Structures are given as structure tokens and as C-alpha cells.
Amino acid sequence: MKDNAYFDNASTTWPKPEAVYLFIDQFQRSHGVNPSRGGYAMAVETEAMVIQTRKLLATFFGFTGSANRVVFTANITDSLNMVLSGLLQSGDHVVITRLEHNAVLRTTQYLSQDNGVEVTQVPIDATGGESATQAQSAAGVVSVDAVRAALKKNTKAIVINHASNVTGRVQPLDEIGQLAKEFSIPLIVDTAQTAGVLPIDMQSQGIAVATFTGHKGLFGPMGIGGFIINEDIDLKVTKFGGNGILSENLYQPEQWPHRHEVGTLPVPAIAGLHAGQRWFNALGESIASAYGITSGKGARTLKVALNNDDLDTPLNAKQHALRVTDAVKHIHRIEMRHLEKLLDVLTRFDHVRVLGGVNTNFENPQVATLSFVSNKVSTARIAESLDADYHVCLRAGLHCAPLVHTDENTIAGGGAVRLAPGLFTDDEDMTQLIDGLLDVLG
Ligand SMILES: Cc1ncc(COP(=O)(O)O)c(C=O)c1O
After folding, report:
1. What pLDDT digit, counting tens, does each position of 40-60 carry?
2. Which atom of ligand 1 is nearest to the CA of 100?
3. Total tally of structural domains belonging to the chain
4. Could you give the C-alpha distances from 151 to 90, 108, 156, 189, in angstroms and in order?
5. Ligand 1 in reach of 165 Cβ (< 6 A)
6. Which protein residue's CA is at the shortest distance from atom 15 of ligand 1?
7. Mean pLDDT calculated for residue range 233-258
8. Which of 323, 355, 387 is the last residue of a domain?
């Protein structure tokens, strides 16, 4: 039995590709200095790596504007705080959904209480109370008509969680993007659960601001996130401090991205994100070749030759876009296979309810995250048994999206058990988990 059968990828992906670990270590040794502060070669090269990472990410998210509009933050929570606080002021209205993570819910709650911002939480169909059956597979998705109905004259932004971190259900982003375009309202997307798992294209999907976190599907380390924002949006600064640019000025410089990046950047974490991008590229390339990688294990050991000379090589953005799209589709396919197996086990038990409904029609997109409750065995008991007896790493309880738990009636019972397989989940992990589920639920 493995010591750790890891099923907490919705929280953070683990392990990371080997190339990510290696490059963080290598770059920290060769270039552990502050970018954009010094004129010496090491500092300039460090800055080059940071700039390249912005460019790779712009391409990854289908952003056609300047890579200066890729702003690094600590994580997506930080990004959403900055974007929402920078865009919304007293008298403005914002539309969010009841699927949102606390990163959006709490931020808008404070903006409403302290800054006079009006917030509408669009409801989501839920599988509901105790008697709900597993057949309700249409649940968990926001209706575009409901978003349309929530719009007002003073609506200044629509915020949507691309996929729920509780149910894994993917929201109709294309249609909401169309709606946002029709009314010229910026669409802000929380891509925490989808970046690296579903292709995202800001341009064609009508996304004005894509917020991201580095440590989940992008396979970077913790400590790095960001947002990419259309050039026609002016964002008020909400953080203040030095960044090595125009130091004589007592105000933040006008130049993007420095305007919004204060203090020393987390260069080791950016290096990890950089390596992650190159790894996606190599995965896409190997899938396209005759010797394509077909399993998660192959992807993990995928060799990505990264050395510092690469930082001077001009990027081929078109090629990067094609390769990362292939890689992302491949990752999603593998993760869906795991999900199908888990749903097959869980639906054998009448006392089990999958939150958001059982979605096996993957035409209605889904990421590989599901949460369930049982009316026979408590959430706490299931989690304890899987951990103690089967060494399964998972998260049980309330998953930072409290309104989903309210609507799914799972607060009083202590939340739900969440299972989130990933690209690097292997057969042994699956067997360990499935044995545990059959034991504790049977
Ligand atoms: C949908 C969603 N939004 C936001 C977050 C917050 O991510 P981070 O802790 O990296 O800021 C998460 C992570 O759990 C999430 O799943």
C-alpha cells in the first residue's frame, strides 16, 4: 500500500513534474537575485525569465494584448482581491454566483459592507435535501438567463468561477462571455480549477480578466498567482510600494505590470511556473509525435531540457498555443477516466449523494473533482477511515465555497468528502481509494 494515495489535487496538485522541481533549484542557484533592481547580467537575465514567463502565460490563456498586462500576485485570492477592489466602487453593482469560492464571496461581502458595492449572487440548481436522488445530473450549473436577469444599469463586472471546487461542474463560460460582450461588462473569471485542465482562450471566450493560481493545474509551486487584464481596463491600484521603477516618485508608476506589483517578486515561484509552461509545451509536442505519452506517469518523467540559454531564445507563441492546448486536452482526458471509475463505485450505493449530481455526460464539461455525502456513514467517519486504513489523502468538510454547501444542505452534516484525482494519479492510488470506499460505504 502507498503511504500517500493523493486525491487532493483540487487543493493543490502534487507531485509536480520533475522539470518544475529541477528548474526552481537550478535557477535559484544560478540567478537567485532581484530582477529589475540591478543592471548586472544576473539581474537582467532574471528579469528576462520573468518577462518570458509573462509571455508564455499570455499565450497559454489566449491573451492577444501586451504581456505587460500579466500581473503576478501571491495566489488567485490575492488576484481577485486586487481586481475586485480596483474595479468596483460605491454605487457599482457586481454579479457573482453562489458557486463562488470565498476568494470572491468574502471580498465582495466586504466591498458591499464597507464600500457600498451592490452584489447579486445568482443561484445554481442544487441536488438539494435528504431525499434528492442521483439522477439530477443537470444540477450545479448556472443558467445564462439567470445571469442576464441579474444585470442592472450599474453592473460593472460579472464574476464567474469556471469550475466549482466542490462539484467539479464547469460553467457555461462561452455563453456568459457573449452576454458580457453584448452588454460591454467586463467578465472576470476564476480559473483556479480549470487552468491546465480545460483550454481557456480569453480572446474568443470574451474574458476581460483571467485570474489564476500557480500551484494547481499550472503545476507551479505555492506562492505565485496572477491576473491577465484587457488593455482597455483601467485598474485602480490597491497596493503600494517599491518595485525598482521610478523610485523618485511617491506614487505608483503608470507602467504595467509594475504599477500593480509591489515589493520583491517571488522569483523561485515564477521560475517554477516558467518550467511548468515549458513542460506543458513538451507534453503537447510529445502527444503530437508518433511516440506520444499516453499515461500520467510518462508525463511526470517527461524530460524538459531547460537551461538558462533558453531564456534568450525567442518564443514561438503560435507553437506554444497549439502544444499547450493539446497537452491540456490530454490531461483532461486522463483525469476523466479516473472520475468515471470513481462515479461507477459511488453510484452503487443508494445512500450516497454526489453534490451537483452525477454527470457522466462529459459533453457537459466536468473537471475531475467530486464531493459526496452519505446518509448512512458520516463525512467525518468516511474521511477518517480512508486516511487511517487506506492512506488516502483527501479533504472532507466545507470546501471554502459555503453557499454550495448551504444549497446542497451539507453544512449541518459537517460538509462533504471531496475526491480530486489528477494527472499523476496511478492505478495503485485508484485501487487503494476504491478498496477504502467499498469498505467504509459497504
Ligand atoms: C475556485 C477556487 N477559487 C479560488 C481558490 C483559492 O486559491 P488560492 O488559495 O491559491 O488563492 C481556490 C482554491 O482552493 C479555488 O478552488
Report:
1. 989 999 999 999 999 999 999
2. 1
3. 2
4. 17, 16, 9, 17
5. yes
6. 192
7. 92
8. 323
Torsion of the alpha carbons at 388, 393, 399 and 400, rounded to the nearest 10: 120
For ligand 1, the distance from its centroid to the CA atom of residue 246, given in whole angstroms, is 34
Question: Lowest-confidence range among 211-220, 285-294, 422-431?
Answer: 285-294
Task: Read off the pLDDT of residues 342-384 as tens digits, 9 standing for 90 and up.
Answer: 999 999 999 999 998 888 777 678 999 999 999 999 999 999 9
Q: What amino acid occupies position 171?
A: Q
Evaluate whether residue 123 is within a structural domain: yes
Q: Is residue 263 part of a domain?
A: yes
Checking if the pLDDT of 134 tops 90, the result is no
DSSP string, 93-133: EEEEETT--HHHHHHHHHHHHHH--EEEEE------STT--
> Among the atoms of ligand 1, which is closest to the Cα of residue 11?
14
76 and 110 assigned to the same domain: yes
In ligand 1, the atom with minimum distance to the C-alpha of 78 is 11
| Distance (Å) from CA 269 to ligand 1 centroid | 17
Residue 222 CA to ligand 1 centre (angstroms)? 11
By most ligand atoms within 8 Å of CB, the mutation choice from 72, 76, 106 for ligand 1 is: 76
| pLDDT above 90: percentage of residues in the chain | 78
Residue 25 CA to residue 347 CA, distance in Å, equals: 44
Residues 371, 14, 430, CA angle at the centre, nearest 5°? 55
Q: Are the C-beta atoms of residues 357 and 138 closer than 8 Å to each other?
A: yes
Distance in Å, CA 400 to ligand 1 centroid: 8
Residue 131 has pLDDT above 60, yes or no: no
Predicted confidence (pLDDT) per residue in 265-285, tens digit = 999 999 999 999 999 999 998
Q: Which domain holds residue 347?
A: 5-12+333-441
